[in-house]
Design goal:
Blueprint lengths: L25 H10 L1 H10 L7 H10 L1
Helix pairs in contact: 1-2
Length: 64
């Protein structure tokens, strides 16, 4: 059984785990939401780390 190292287990280093999916990166999701909204929304909904709040997503879609 493989164990993934988490942020706390690595001693708080800012280096991301190489097994992390692209859609779990909140900084990338922010950039994609700004530059290419459909791909950004996909990354938010596929992410296991980012919890989308329906009200915030709805307001963001209305503003865009």
């Amino acid at each position: 059984m493989k164990h993934k190292k988490t942020f706390q287990q690595t001693g708080g280093n800012s280096v991301q785990n190489s097994t992390e999916k692209w859609c779990d990166n909140p900084n990338l999701a922010d950039v994609l939401l700004f530059l290419f909204p459909p791909l950004g929304l996909y990354s938010v909904f596929k992410s296991k780390k980012i919890i989308p709040h329906p009200v915030k997503v709805g307001v963001g879609l209305l503003v865009f």
